[in-house]
Every structure is written in C-alpha cells, then in structure tokens.
Design brief:
Layout lengths: L1 H23 L6 E2 L2 E2 L4 H17 L6 H13 L14 H15 L9 H16 L6 H4 L8 H6 L9 H21 L5 H13 L21 H20 L5 H18 L4 H14 L2 H11 L1 H18 L22 H13 L11 H6 L2 H28 L2 E2 L3 H18 L7 H13 L1 E2 L7 H17 L3 H9 L16 E3 L6 E3 L18 E5 L2 E5 L1
Antiparallel strand pairs: 1-2, 3-4, 5-6, 7-8
Helix pairs in contact: 1-2, 1-3, 1-4, 4-8, 8-9, 8-10, 9-17, 9-19, 9-20, 10-11, 10-12, 10-19, 11-12, 11-14, 18-19
Length: about 550
C-alpha cells in the first residue's frame, strides 16, 4: 500500500513540476482544443527535467543534490499562483486525478527490471551520474548510441539500489494517456475515445489469449510506451490544428512543437510527427509565416533540438544514431568506417524483419513467422474490424457525413506505417502508429451535431474503468492484497553479477551473458581504449 501512496505523491509532484514550468512561461492557455492544459502538466514536467539534465550534462555529472534542485526549484513557482489551486471534488475530477493514477499504480506490486535495463539502460544512466558527457560512449556499447531522453529523466530518480521510481516515470505517461481518453468521452471526439477503449478491451481476448498491440505497462527502463503515448497525443493535436482554429495560437504551436521534439527524443520514429506538423503549417500559412513559426516563434524548441543532436554527435558521431547518412567518420571518436552504426542499424532491421529490396517478395510470410507478430497481426485485424463496425454503425445512426480532411490523416498513417515496416517493424515500436489508425477511423465521418445521449456516457465510463482495471496484470492485485500493510516501499534491485577481465582491451566483461547491469568498467565492445581530455572521457575503437 505504501508503494501505491508513493506513486500518487510522485504523480502530484510531477504534476506541480509541470505547473511550475507553465507559470514560468506565463501560459494563459486553459485548454488545447478539448484537452484541459493541466492534464499535460506531468508531460511538461518530465520534458523539462530530461532536457535540462541533458544541457547540464555537457558540463557536469548529474548528482543527487542537482536532481533535487531541478525538481524543487520549479515547484516553488506554484506558490506564485497558489490562490488558483482549488480542490474541485467533481466526479469527473476524482475519476481523472485520483482513480486513474491509483488503478495504474497497482502495477508497481510486481514490476521488475527489463532485460535491456541490465544490457545498457542502467549503465548509461550511471555514466550520466559519474561523468560529464562522454565522447564516443557508443564505442563502449553500441546501444549507448540511442541515448534516449528517458535516460536523462530516469537518472534523477535513483534511490540507491532501488529503481521503483523509474517505473513511476513510465506510469506518468500512461496516466496522462488514459486521462485524455477519459475526458474525450465528454466531447465531440468521444468516438475516438470509445474506439481506443474497445481496442484496449479486446487486447485481453482473441488468438492465444489476446495481445493486439495496445498500450501496455512495460518492465522498468523501457521507453516504448512513453514514445507511443507522446506520438499519438502529438498526432491528435496536429490533426486538430489542421481542422480547427483556437485562440492563443502561438501557445498551441509551442506545445505541439514541444511534444513533437519529445517524441523524437524518445525515439527517432517521432520525426514523422514533425513532417506532419510542417505539412499542416504550410497548408494553413504562407511559407514565410511557416518559417517564422518554426525558427522564430519556436526558437526555444529548436535550440533544445540542436542540443539533442549535438549530444548525439558527441556520444555516437551520428546526428541520429544509427542512421549511417547522419554519421561522420572524421571525428576522433568515430569508428572510421561507420561499422558501428551500420552494424547496429542492420542488426535492428534483421531482428525485427524489416522490409527490404531483397525480401519484398516473401517479407510478410517471413515477418509473420515470428510468433508474436502473427498473434498480434491476427488480433489487430479482428480489433480494427470491430472498431470499424462500431464507427460505421454510429455513422448510420447519426447520419454522419464524410470528412474530406480525414484523408490527410490516412496519408499520415500510411506513411508512418511504411516507415515502420522498412526500418524496425517490432510490435512495441508500432503502438503509436496503430493508435493513429484508430484516430483516422474515428474521424472519418462527422455529424453536424455534437450531442449524444446520456447513456452513452454511462456506458463509456463503465467501459473506461473496465479497460483501465485490466491494464495492470491480475497478479498485481493479489500482490497488493498480500502486502496491504507492508510499511516498506517496493524495492526493485539489480542482481549480483560476476565479471572477468577483458583480455586485450579496456575494462571487464560479464562472466555469463551480456548484461553489465551497473558497472562502468563493464564493456560490450572488446577492442576499446579509454582516454581523458580536459576532464572529459573519450572512448576510441
């Protein structure tokens, strides 16, 4: 129970962190289309924390005292407008801000570290704590080249050898996603919300017991679900930008730019968001106005994006690792022939069975030969069929008309799907794209009237809590009951690992397997040298 309470406190802390940032930027925006802006406060808070940590790491290691300062300082700005904090105990607010995080927090009862946490995530964060930005860090371990913003967020939440707060970070994204879905039930875009809930419900049924590529709670240190959530929120808001006008246009652009950058920082696939956004800007404005919006009105976001790219160059010699055309072999810490990013890119494509010019004739049969892909594909077809039937049924009931602008969303989805297929079509990478298709189906038809009968709300709310309750695995509920009166915070620790000397190179290797866990002397690449220039560590191969 104490762990559940700890998560509620954590959620509120990140919420007010984001509110403090909003006060700093003097935002007057109350809603961004149908979404109350305060729902996005936790996302703002994590975005601020990750990007400021990244900037600081150019000059300093990330210490615990620095993390406390980064967290506490923006919280103090809440005191400026403390009179505006009002406790509104409406049913909608209780469901949104209490029951939603409470139910999702139950997943903390049995959560454990992901395999990749031991492979590279935790060691990456340990480097951030120990050194200023490390030149050629990807030479130590190829996976360090990805260097997602999630590492710069999570590094602030280590509790000695307990990593439960890293799980709390992932839960924040899922909480915000479900809060948005719940609140959209009360708007003219409720069909999207209901369709997403149908999607979530069917994730628990079907072939081999279900699994259809829906949002899920991942093991600790993974960022696939946070990416999918930021991706679909960005996609929704860009689509709304295409269709609707709202006051405070500059602030809306600023928030959408922030979310698009966040999606790229979480995973390179987020670039699709940016392409969609640029298209919408060019559709709505002249080229000169679009350039002004991007480079002048959103200079702050561009600056952070450039800093992220510069960080990528330092750690991997690539602007966007492992895309070879963005890599530079003249940098002292590069591999000289792109072998590292090239090999990593090929390995990623091979592992996830990407579509190439060599396998296009038999790609689908090869891709579905992987059991998880086949299961999800069959369940996804079944799920999408039911969602389409629901929306078609509603079209005839309400006599809705075809919305021409929805074709733009379909093109966006199709391009996203194609890029996913030719790069790394792993199911966990495609969740945000699948949800974009659900969004397209939901807005394909619209009615002139936005009203709907009250029993739809009652049914939808019941569906919401059923789906929400099924997100944490059943065993978490039993564990919660068994440990109801345990006064200790749930502890998630790394295992004890034995190492051996790396003969002929720097550092040590795991005696068994390839997981280094938390040991900066442990390396993945055997041919490696470590040097130091002006207090900066540099790895060369």
């Amino acid at each position: 129970m104490i762990t559940l309470i700890a998560f509620l406190f954590f959620y509120l802390s990140i919420y007010f962190l984001g509110r403090g940032i909003s006060i700093v930027f003097r935002s007057k925006l109350k809603h961004i289309y149908e979404i109350p802006i305060n729902i996005l406060y936790p996302i703002f808070g994590l975005f601020y924390l990750g990007n400021l940590t990244l900037l600081i790491n150019f000059f300093l290691p990330i210490s615990s005292s620095l993390s406390y300062f980064l967290l506490v300082f923006p919280l103090l700005f809440n005191l400026i407008k403390i009179q505006q904090i009002k406790l509104n105990l409406s049913i909608k607010n209780i469901a949104t801000f209490f029951f939603t995080p409470l139910i999702l927090g139950i997943s903390s009862a049995n959560i454990n570290l992901a395999y990749d946490a031991g492979l590279y995530h935790l060691n990456h964060q340990k480097w951030l704590q120990t050194e200023k930005i490390v030149f050629g860090l990807s030479n130590n371990h190829n996976r360090f080249g990805y260097s997602s913003i999630i590492e710069y967020i999570n590094v602030n939440f280590w509790l000695e050898n307990n990593y439960i707060l890293l799980h709390f970070v992932n839960l924040i994204f899922i909480v915000v996603f479900f809060q948005i879905i719940y609140l959209l039930l009360f708007t003219k875009y409720f069909k999207f919300s209901v369709s997403v809930l149908i999607y979530g419900l069917l994730d628990n049924f079907g072939f081999n017991g279900g699994k259809n590529g829906y949002i899920e709670i991942e093991s600790i240190a993974k960022q696939d679900t946070p990416f999918a959530i930021v991706f679909i929120i960005s996609s929704y808001l860009i689509y709304r930008l295409l269709n609707d006008y709202q006051n405070f246009e500059k602030e809306i652009y600023f928030i959408i730019f922030i979310l698009c950058l966040f999606s790229i920082e979480l995973r390179l696939l987020g670039f699709i968001n940016v392409l969609f956004l640029i298209f919408v800007l060019l559709y709505k404005h002249k080229i000169s106005k679009t350039i002004k919006i991007i480079f002048i009105d959103n200079f702050f976001t561009i600056f952070l994006g450039v800093a992220f790219i510069f960080k990528n160059l330092i750690t991997s010699s690539c602007m966007f690792y492992p895309v070879k055309i963005t890599c530079f072999n003249f940098l002292p810490w590069s591999t000289g022939n792109y072998s590292s990013p090239g090999a990593e890119n090929d390995a990623l494509a091979d592992f996830h069975i990407a579509l190439t010019s060599n396998n296009y004739t038999y790609w689908f049969s090869e891709w579905t030969s992987k059991e998880v892909n086949l299961i999800v594909f069959k369940n996804l077809i079944l799920t999408f069929s039911i969602i389409i039937l629901y929306n078609v049924f509603y079209k005839f009931i309400k006599k809705e008309k075809f919305d021409k602008r929805s074709t733009t969303l379909f093109i966006y989805f199709f391009i996203s799907l194609l890029i996913w297929i030719i790069t790394s079509p792993g199911i966990r990478f495609g969740v945000g794209i699948f949800l974009t298709f659900v969004l397209f189906i939901s807005v394909l038809y619209k009615s002139k009237k936005s009203d709907f009968i009250i029993r739809n709300i009652i049914f939808s709310t019941m569906l919401y809590f059923i789906v929400l309750g099924l997100v944490p695995q059943t065993n978490n509920y039993f564990s919660l009951i068994d440990n109801m009166f345990d006064p200790r915070l749930r502890s998630v620790e790394v295992p004890s690992v034995s190492y051996k000397q790396n003969i002929g190179g720097y550092g040590v290797l795991p005696e068994k397997g390839d997981q280094c866990w938390v040991n900066l002397e442990c390396v993945r690449n055997k041919t490696l040298s470590k040097e130091k220039y002006f207090s900066y560590v540099i790895f060369k191969r």
